[in-house]
Design goal:
- The structure holds 2 protein chains of 2 kinds.
- Chain A is built from 13 helices and 16 strands.
- In chain A, 35% of the residues lie in helices and 23% in strands.
- The longest helix of chain A is centred in the middle third of the chain and has 31 residues.
- In chain A, strands 13-12-11-14-15-16 form a 6-stranded antiparallel beta sheet.
- Chain A is α+β, with helices and mostly antiparallel strands.
- Chain B is an all-alpha fold.
- In chain B, 57% of the residues lie in helices and 0% in strands.
- Chain B has 14 helices and no strands.
- In chain B, helix 1 runs antiparallel to helix 3, helix 4 runs antiparallel to helix 14 and helix 12 packs parallel to helix 14.
- The chains are: A alpha+beta, B mainly alpha.
- Chains A and B meet through helix 6, helix 9, helix 12, strand 11 and strand 13 of A and helix 1, helix 3, helix 6 and helix 8 of B.
Chain lengths: 480, 264
């Protein structure tokens, strides 16, 4: 049949955004599709999405058109993009087209013919033909050239691409400046008095915000707070400078990174992904246990992290909520409840997710499975291998409190982990709660790993889960 | 050959001085292979690459610390911890009806319950300064309370030498109640509830009397509460006292449930 396959660049150029390609990546697996096929005119298949019925997707790769029964208003939708990605990767075999594909291609062909006549007769006939297109048929034509035998390279939409390119360029410039700044710090040394001045950090953070690298700007502001904060602050600051360098380098070479890693880096640098795009992604459906919660003030925003663990998959997920002064944090995810729900993950191997459809009322679940401290370290290490710049990770372990000198630690027969007590003096949280509830015995608990130790978040008792995570100050946020 | 931690310390030392003054240390072989790059020509660039690589290695290589001895556990306590509903109720009354807290604690102690462990830190912090209430908490907490304070001195009493009489411990504090209302403390619920509801409906009692009425409902006999709840629930919604009656019904309901949860 002599089908001329598209290149990945052609697929990217028809995508409405970079995020759309990201959303399509998880669907670009042949296990998600049935009835896949391609011929010299079209590409088709059925993809199992979040609905009960699979979505029927067709792509006219000759004259560039797309149709899909999914509810997305994006064109092409992620299913069409995923289909194209599968084809690009040679995972779609050539077969004769089914009747509905032939009908669609014939109709498009007739429309083109009519348009062609209309070009001669003033467009009257083409308008009528276009009007006869069935309602709800999500079809778009990107190729204007009629009658060519070779696949038409998709025509990029200049405005959208210009804006995106401009943004990428600004981010790239921001990352270059960050690396130059890091280089200066390393040259002049951490004993340089300018490090103690907040403006040294804040000016850079402001420039990174302008460069669309908001997440890095936040890291810089947090880093400023480490200077002089402990006797070992030089260690902490140097490590963070190293991670910023890592992110900056990776961010400047996104194109050469594997897809999921590139997404993870882009997110960590600050590339914004719209919630709607995330929610349009493939859901991760499971019975989720809300294993722990922690509230942390970051600059002028209170950040609430809910750590969820899938009982079937064993995978972790993170749901974030934010509150400025006198705003409210999310209280819908009570620690200890079980939730049969769809979670939609942000691009890449990210833990960060949004809760989508809930399939049942919350129930009191069994606790997440616990492990030894050594096994917990392995789990955390594996997550850090994938993304070394993460600074908070959840893990459920079975351990008891112990003391090493004046420092509290969690311990078992395999070793110990120091406890970062963010809440000894907090009303009913942190170390005091863990000590009171456990009475020195081993208990199952979910903790948040940080580079400085673990923060106890919840104790899983046989009959209930006790939430002991750091809690936002109610004078700052309401309803926490 | 230097360990990763030793090499890290060498990097920290160099970073303190700055690469303008000191050359970065030679990287260990595994890191040298990782950061070998002809594009990095300056010492600071080579240093940054090393710092990034070593930081990633150190983080991903998180390992458990040394084995530690077990803590001595608190002495045993035969009393059962109060039920979960009572735990939730304590949080509710301290947030909404603190007038009931003394009764909650005394009922718990006289009922033979022990304070549930998850309430202890909050209670110990809350009653650090009041010797009577502090002593009640320590009685209710038993050996776990003493053990906890021993480990966390931040939870210790502000006045540990204050003396408390057994009478003060065993009695509810007196609450100011106007004499004409005080007679209702020991009345049956139908009588006290009926009189109060009528006064609320006709406006004789209103918001200026709110504090007195709250004190009264915190001290009326326990077996009067159900009748009072019913009668307050039937107060005419068009009357001036309807809002206050609703509030007082909530207090009566909370107290009734509190006593029920702590009954033996």
């Amino acid at each position: 049949m002599g089908t001329s396959r598209w290149s990945i660049e052609q697929v990217e150029s028809v995508a409405p955004s970079a995020a759309a390609i990201t959303a399509a990546q998880p669907l670009a697996s042949s296990t998600r599709w049935t009835g896949l096929g391609v011929n010299d005119a079209a590409l088709w298949g059925s993809c199992q999405g979040s609905g009960s019925e699979p979505y029927d997707t067709m792509v006219d790769h000759q004259h560039v058109g797309f149709t899909c029964t999914c509810p997305s208003r994006k064109m092409p939708c992620k299913h069409a993009l995923a289909l194209l990605l599968l084809w690009v990767r040679d995972q779609v075999v050539e077969t004769p087209s089914p009747a509905h594909v032939s009908t669609w291609i014939d109709r498009r062909s007739a429309k083109r013919t009519a348009s062609s006549r209309a070009a001669v007769t003033g467009g009257q006939a083409a308008s009528e033909q276009a009007a006869s297109e069935p309602a709800g048929s999500e079809t778009v034509d990107a190729g204007d050239v009629i009658g060519e035998s070779e696949p038409t390279p998709p025509v990029p939409k200049p405005d959208r691409n210009t804006a995106r390119n401009d943004r990428v360029e600004r981010m790239h410039a921001g990352l270059t400046e960050l690396d130059r700044w890091l280089d200066d710090r390393i040259r002049t040394g951490l004993a340089d008095p300018s490090l103690a001045r907040y403006t040294t950090w804040d000016d850079l953070a402001a420039r990174l915000v302008d460069a669309q690298a908001g997440s890095l700007a936040n890291r810089i502001r947090r880093l400023a707070g480490l200077v002089g904060a402990s006797p070992d602050w030089h260690d902490d600051v140097l490590a963070e400078l190293g991670l910023l360098h890592l992110l900056s380098q990776a961010g400047r070479h996104l194109g050469s990174l594997p897809g999921p890693l590139a997404d993870a880096v882009a997110t960590s640098v600050g590339w914004q992904v719209r919630q709607a795009d995330v929610l349009a992604g493939v859901p991760d459906t499971d019975h989720w246990v809300v294993a722990g919660r922690s509230d942390v003030r970051e600059d002028r925003i209170e950040v609430r992290r809910h750590w969820l663990r899938g009982t079937s998959s064993g995978k972790w997920a993170l749901c974030l909520s934010f509150a400025a002064y006198q705003q409210s944090l999310d209280t819908s995810l009570r620690v200890g409840i079980g939730l049969h729900a769809d979670l939609h993950r942000y691009p890449g191997p990210a833990l960060r997710s949004l809760v989508g459809a809930r399939h049942a009322l919350p129930v009191d679940p069994v606790a997440p499975p616990s492990q030894t401290i050594a096994e917990g370290c392995n789990e955390v290490g594996s997550m850090l291998v994938a993304e070394p710049w993460l600074d908070r990770l959840p893990v459920t372990i079975r351990a008891r409190l112990a003391r090493s000198g004046g420092v509290w630690a969690l311990a078992d027969a395999t070793g110990s982990l120091p406890v970062v007590d963010a809440g000894t003096r907090q009303f009913g949280a942190g170390l005091a709660m863990l000590l009171a509830v456990s009475e020195g015995r081993e208990v199952d608990l979910t903790v948040e790993w940080t580079p400085h130790g673990v923060v106890p978040l919840s104790i899983h008792l046989p009959d209930r889960t006790v939430d002991i995570g750091p809690r936002a100050n109610t004078s700052f946020v309401s309803g926490s | 050959m230097k360990s990763v931690d030793e090499h890290w310390q060498a990097l920290v030392t160099t970073a303190l001085l700055g690469t303008d003054r000191r050359e970065p240390p030679d990287a260990p072989q595994m890191i040298a292979d990782l950061v070998a790059d002809t594009a990095r020509t300056s010492p600071s660039e080579r240093m940054l690459a090393q710092v990034a690589a070593i930081t990633a290695v150190r983080r991903a290589g998180v390992v458990p610390g040394p084995l530690l001895d077990e803590l001595a556990m608190p002495d045993g306590d035969d009393r059962l911890p109060c039920v979960l509903a009572a735990v939730d109720r304590w949080h509710q009354i301290t947030a909404s009806w603190p007038v009931l807290e003394d009764e909650w604690m005394l009922t718990l102690v006289t009922g033979g319950w022990r304070i549930a462990p998850e309430l202890l830190p909050a209670m110990l912090v809350r009653h650090r300064s009041d010797p009577v209430r502090r002593t009640r908490v320590m009685v209710g907490a038993g050996s776990t309370g003493r053990w906890l304070v021993g480990h966390l001195p931040d939870l210790a009493a502000r006045h540990p030498d204050a003396t408390v009489t057994p009478e003060a411990l065993a009695e509810l504090p007196e609450l100011p109640i106007a004499p004409e209302l005080a007679q209702l403390v020991d009345s049956p619920g139908a009588e006290s509830g009926g009189m109060l509801a009528q006064s609320l409906e006709d406006g004789t009692l209103g918001h200026p009397h709110r504090a007195m009425l709250i004190n009264l409902l915190a001290r009326v006999r326990a077996d009067a509460l159900l009748d009072i709840i019913d009668i307050f629930g039937a107060v005419d919604s068009m009357s001036p006292g309807y809002g206050l009656a609703t509030v007082l019904a909530d207090l009566a309901t909370t107290r009734h449930r509190m006593l029920d949860e702590l009954s033996t």
